[in-house]
Amino acid sequence: MDSSLISISPRKLRSDLYSYSYQEDSNIPLVISVLASLIERNVARNERIAKNCKWALSRHARTRVFDGHEAPDMTVQSFLERIFRYTKAGPSVYVVAYVYIDRLCQNYPGFRISPSNVHRLLITTIMVASKYVEDMNYRNSFFARVGGLTTNELNKLEVDFLFLMGFKLHVNVSVFESYCSHLEREVSIGGGYQIERTLRCAEEIKLRQCAERRYDQIARISL
Prior knowledge:
Layout: H1 10-19, H2 30-52, H3 76-87, H4 91-107, H5 118-133, H6 140-147, H7 151-164, H8 173-188, H9 198-222
């Protein structure tokens, strides 16, 4: 195993979420890798659905504001790391942004996260979550530069997002804890993800388990 890869465990993730310190830890928060894995798998699943069933991706016109003309040539992981490096938004901001994305998907069941909208959706939700969580924030113009947008574009996305959410941005402690627990469960699947190899490791574990089950079935039949 590559020594440069860092193993993520539920305990490490929880410690990171509640006690991350910029002064003591210059590494990228673990929640970014876990969230990137969740989003990337969601995008991949939606792309499979789109290929097999075009009508399943029909979306509400209002949610198309997040669609870009071209999908940026940057992975979700790299994009989230870029946002963190420049904005220094704390780990809890990404959890709240995750809550917002989930609420949006629940409010608009036809909405699907795709390569054409994921980056604009992330920079918008993270900026709004940062305003909700953090005491001090950068201006929209700064977030726009980080996200590769103009200030006017991000301003419009923010307003559209607020109306899509019905301005319901409050996240209480119990909701925050439940989403943290969900992220921890995601880490626990298959014994933990590896940074930069999350999807591949999960798939390898799944295939190996299937192969082991088939082998056990053959062994029992033979006996």
